[in-house]
Specification:
By secondary structure, the chain is mostly helical. It folds into 2 domains: 254 residues, no CATH class; 269 residues, no CATH class. 63% of the residues lie in helices and 2% in strands. The longest helix is centred in the N-terminal third of the chain and has 40 residues.
Amino acid sequence: MIRLSIVFFLLLSSALPVAAAEDSERFREIYEKEWAFRLKEFPMFASYVGVQDYADRLEDVSEEAQARRFEFWKTIHTELDTVSCNRLEREECINYRIFAKQMDNFLADYETRSYLIPFNSDWGFYMELARLPKDSEFSNLDDYRNYLGRLHQMPRLMDQYIALMRKGLELGMTQPRVILDGRDEPIRAQLVADVSQSPFFDPFQSIPESIAGGEKSELLAAAEQVISSEVIPSFQRLYDFFQQEYMPGARTTLGASDLPEGERFYQAQIRKYVTLDMSAAEIHRIGQEQVTRIRGEMDAIIEEVGFDGDFAAFLQFLRTDPQFYAKTPKELLAFASYYAKKIDGRLPMIIGHLPRQPYGVEPVPEEIAPFYTAGRYVSAPLEARRGGYYWVNTYALESRPLYAIPALTLHEGAPGHHTQGALAMEQQDQPPFRRYDYISAYGEGWGLYSEKLGLEMDIYETPYEHFGRLTYEMWRACRLVIDTGIHSMGWTREQAQNFLGSNTALSIHEVTTEIDRYISWPGQALSYKLGEYTIWKLRARAEQDLGDSFDVRDFHDFILSLGSVPLDVLSEETNLWINEQQEKG
């Protein structure tokens, strides 16, 4: 019996490396097949990642295409079950888990029919299409021809989106009516009478002779024709549909729970954006605890500045005193630029490996600014001849307090989204499905964590700027309470506005746009605080376990080297890293 056991052990031991190699090869075959499919199905995404094979095409979003993708991804999901993550190398197992979650999200989006609601109060397909001229590269003649090819496909794509939203109206899968006012402005902005005034014509305004050669007049004529007879009419059809059908037919209810199979829909959104299986009730409780903690820190600053009044009076003071507001858009942009450069000079204090790609500061495009958030980072492909951009909203200057700019800059620029995203793109050894993924809980969690790093970098210059940071942290804590309140507990819009307005120094304009964002984008707002909460817990453990050998630069370099990962993977990998650092002594 002993001899048989030894023989069996030897046979098993020799089989393990073979099985591991087979699983590794099988997994590679699966994700490479899926990635090729993904690039072909989403041509604009392919262009973003530097693959120009489909640069003259736009995607197919018809219900038939949605069903076809679902069947393909279902097959991929089944094939993944033939691979054992436990037999893969550590890095490969991380890749496997990320890829499997992507497939889960793709399947859930189809099963809950989220594709029938292709826009929210913050962003949408028509805004993405409107950015096509700015996001396209024009370095050779083929670039112009490919761009014209995409313009020719725009009417087909627009009609498909209208058909999806019309189906959504039939099923009750729509945005709530209460958030729709003004959301058609980016569509109306494309309805120009003169083709030369269309943003889609901008790339043709100054074609270098070295590129166009003898074809310049032909390119101009083709552009004028397609924009006047195809692109602008397609936006007109969308605008008419929005005005005549969508707004009158949109649902009057508010929360995701009121959608068809709403509870399942909202839970799928929680899994997608939080990357953990948490209940709405659990998230709501964490949010309330964080609100209480942050309020205590805010009260301490009010006492520090010697303000004579209660919390509500101090918020009113911050919202109305002219000293806290820029007088011109240029002044606001200059203030943001000052902090961006100040932060750049201090990044080596907290991060060892910095990205190659730079970023700039520019205003939020005016056609979306009235209902847009205070700031946003817009990335650029690593291969592009441009950097990323930190957008600052210069609309309604009386609602854009200067004391919030340092925290906003840390979050959107460096060491926040720009630093994290640019470093992720440099991870050349990671498979592209991981390198180009953006996991909100990780990315937004890092962004909020970066705001507090401003304390260690000595970025905040006044007690009011410290309060601005706290009001931003409070804002994200309130999101946990509000998002779950709206989408699973029956909160009203007014209830949500009052909660956010009474706990933060956000302007009333920002409070309104933010609440509409949470209403129209269930689950996404949860990612910020829960991601940051996770990173701080991991750092606390590292500081405690490593003691004097803890190096914040090493810790941050490791976190950022992961790219973008789900929170469970982040926790497990960081704990392993801590153990490895302990073993090194």
